[in-house]
Amino acid sequence: MNEITMGLDVKSDRPLYEQIYQFIKEEIKSGRLAFGERLPSTRKLAEHLQVSRSTVDMAYEQLLSEGYIESVPCRGYFISELDGIYHLVPKNHAKKQKEPLPEKCYAYDFSPNGVDLGSFPYNAWRKLSKNILMDDKKELFMLGAPAGEAILQETIADYLHQARGVACRPEQVIIGAGTDYLLMLLCSVWGGRRKIAMENPTYKRAYRVLKTLNNEMYSVSLDKNGMRMEELEKSGADVAYVMPSHQYPLGTVMPMKRRMKLLGWAGEKPGRYIIEDDYDSEFRYKGKPIPCLQGFDRKGCVIYLGTFSKSIAPAIRVSYMVLPDSLMEAYKSRGSVFASTVSRVDQMIVAGFLREGYYERHLNKMRALYRGRHDALLEGLKEIPGITVHGENAGVHLLVTFENGMTEAEVIARAGKEGIRVYGLSGYYTENTQETQKATVILGYANLEESEIRRAVSDLKKAWTVRNVSMKKAGEDNGDH
Amino acid sequence: MNEITMGLDVKSDRPLYEQIYQFIKEEIKSGRLAFGERLPSTRKLAEHLQVSRSTVDMAYEQLLSEGYIESVPCRGYFISELDGIYHLVPKNHAKKQKEPLPEKCYAYDFSPNGVDLGSFPYNAWRKLSKNILMDDKKELFMLGAPAGEAILQETIADYLHQARGVACRPEQVIIGAGTDYLLMLLCSVWGGRRKIAMENPTYKRAYRVLKTLNNEMYSVSLDKNGMRMEELEKSGADVAYVMPSHQYPLGTVMPMKRRMKLLGWAGEKPGRYIIEDDYDSEFRYKGKPIPCLQGFDRKGCVIYLGTFSKSIAPAIRVSYMVLPDSLMEAYKSRGSVFASTVSRVDQMIVAGFLREGYYERHLNKMRALYRGRHDALLEGLKEIPGITVHGENAGVHLLVTFENGMTEAEVIARAGKEGIRVYGLSGYYTENTQETQKATVILGYANLEESEIRRAVSDLKKAWTVRNVSMKKAGEDNGDH
């Protein structure tokens, strides 16, 4: 064959060499150009198509590099045998994608798991990600260290020291793709079933994860200072999972005295541990942040868990766990066999984000933003009679307890009628809730603008006041007030 | 205060508003501007600094958004209380970073774990990653589905069907950050200790991971067709971990008959499974690729494992596991509690890479590249007397067995003296190797250019021929030949 005739579109965005490459590739795939056939020389084809010879050269180069043609010295280019050449036909998925069932539509959703995604620092992220990929650094695409990149370990250790009072060496920081994974890894480091006490109510995701990993789970109730020590003692647990900075969902801040008691409990018997989940300690609106439990641990009992999911975005699958010295040997033998779950590129982006000051800026911005929402919500709730607010001053949610005799279901339903979604506290209990408890709902405000919050709270006032008024009247008659 | 005096650098890359913002921020942090102090109005400061008012507006806006200042309507801007504002001081790590101990330096390293990183499709990756981040799609930064993004599940299911003959619905494809993680997840889905037989020699990483996860491990030897069935039967194992397309490290391709026997074994008793690790099936140089075992599984016994680590780069932490229908219920109850370990952004990049034809192109390019290296290595090895080559035709490594009486240690040492690193087969055995075995080394060629391979093999010829010649002479004397 000495001629290949094709239509070239000189006005197309696709370069000419690419059009030639594509045409010949299709001819080969379809079998119109068969195994062993000789292609015209680049000179001849260039003349024939009225293009420069280097254009044809580039097209042939591409075909060569993908194995469609072979070059035989002094003889020219020949069509290769196509056995095993990949030819993947993209399927048309359009028809398959089912519409998800419409959920009940709410005008305002006070989800306690929200993060303000509008504030995601896209520009900084893009810039860092571009710079890192720009370097064509080969080593970034090799498998990294199991615990994480040294530079990210150091950066996180520094940050935790400054912001949270964590005392650790960089190698104690284990980086992983999410808290669930890190708990999986921790269970493997322990190497056997544990008896784990969690606060009740609690972060049920962690409860389910630890239970699924074959641990024996206990639920311990809280008083106003956090996990009840006497119940913990009685439970027979050897691990206590706590959120001392801002308990989820109650918002309790564990005071120093209880922290010391807890550390005392852990130090009493060898093999006892505290898991300190510091999931949203970044956001505190009143007073100085309380340093974490880990910083006071002198016996190597505390496993510290943190994440960038709350402070940056849930999809940034970068969390970390600070292991105490007492578990480092076990990590080396039973933890470091697992390759890191976070790509080196992502680790470098996060390290850059922290080191170049973006994280500091982002945290301060989010803190100001959330504080505004927090204040707007508190202010609005003051107008509603018969309720008590608690768990405020930190985090991105607060709790409202009803003193007016409404049931939780009623509170939720009344809000729902106004198009507002609120979340019942009872859903966060791992064991049955006491029936006597007053109705309590959780309001997360990270996802709503201040103006939305004001409108929503004024609607909530309508929803939640009606019965209250009649109750009060009834109460007055009965002499309850 | 009505004046803030600062030096502005109009020639700087940093915009003026940023310089003003930075200056005032530092003044606040240092305490020179204290809580409650009023800032000059934007008009006044603009006049004073001889900049436009909008420049000062932007600087104040930034300070407001990060919580350093507050705006009081009709009164102006005031310094905020700084309690809890993050101020992270970057540490100077320069002195801490230790130089790693220099490893023995080799001119050529025939590592069997290599991937040609020079061919990483940086441009396509950058483009996809840019496009995905460009969209500012909020939902991409929310937590995704535990098993993975539906579009990536579909894309992988299509690809596996076309390229490997895998038969599955998209929801059976579970995406995870690396094979180690997926094995962890699989063990959690099983929910208890298993008796797992692996080929010997094998991929020891998987052996260690499964052992660390508390499984009982058995080693089964291979004949020329793969795992020995009678040994598997005798072992009492209920799970067989095999690499039928290209056994690691022996390179054995399991013929259809043995595959059917293995499937028969698994189907015999309920609860028996086969883990099919198809780690490098993308690269085959002779004949059509053999469809995978999973495609012939009628009883739901096969768990199929694949990864983009070999075909794209080890740092792309995206692997997948295809669960049989028989395990889908168990996955729902004991696997889907774990949040996905791969960020949605990364999942979308990989989905785009496959759907937009980049992967097809990349695979064909790599196949052509590796085939060239494979051929160069085979050609060179033909020149060396007294050796047999096996495990070729697929993957990115082959094996060389020595018929000349040299020990493995001697073979490695002789290559090392020429500056060439080769890997002894004995390191891949989980149990003691038989002493009688002939010295065998593994040569991986993914990391070396064709020209490097030619030079390295010519040096290997020198290294490995000397003794051989003397042996042959000795042999002739003894009448062995």
Q: Which labels suit this protein?
A:
elongated, alpha/beta, eight-stranded mixed β-sheet, about 475 residues, about 15% strand, homodimer, 16 strands
Task: Return the string of H and E elements of chain A.
Answer: HHHEEEHHEHEHEEHEHEEEHHHEEHEEEH
Radius of gyration of chain A: 31 Å
**Main β sheet profile of chain A:** 8 strands, mixed
Would you tell me the overall average pLDDT of chain A? 86
Helix content of chain A: 25-40%
Which geometry of chain A do the CA atoms define? elongated
Characterize the structure shown.
- 2 copies of one chain form a homodimer.
- Chain A is of the alpha/beta class and 481 residues long.
- Chain A contains 14 helices and 16 strands.
- In chain A, the strands form 4 sheets. In chain A, strands 4-11-10-9-8-5-6-7 form an 8-stranded mixed sheet.
- Chain A starts with 15 loop residues before the first helix and ends with a helix.
- The relative contact order of chain A is 0.12.
- At the A-B interface, helix 4, helix 5, helix 6, helix 7 and helix 11 of A face helix 4, helix 5, helix 6, helix 7 and helix 11 of B.
Could you give a short description of this structure?
The first copy, chain A, is α/β, with parallel strands linked by helices and 481 residues long.
Topology diagram in text:
The structure is a homodimer.
Chain A: H1 16-30, H2 42-49, H3 53-65, E1 69-72, E2 76-79, E3 108-109, H4 122-134, H5 150-164, E4 173-176, H6 179-190, E5 195-200, H7 204-212, E6 216-223, E7 226-227, H8 229-235, E8 239-242, H9 256-268, E9 273-277, E10 302-307, E11 319-322, H10 328-334, H11 344-355, H12 358-381, E12 387-390, E13 397-402, H13 408-417, E14 420-421, E15 423-424, E16 440-444, H14 450-478
Parallel strand pairs in A: 3-14, 5-6, 5-8, 8-9, 9-10
Antiparallel strand pairs in A: 1-2, 4-11, 6-7, 10-11, 12-13, 13-16, 15-16
Helix pairs in contact in A: 1-3, 2-3, 4-11, 5-11, 6-7, 6-10, 12-14, 13-14
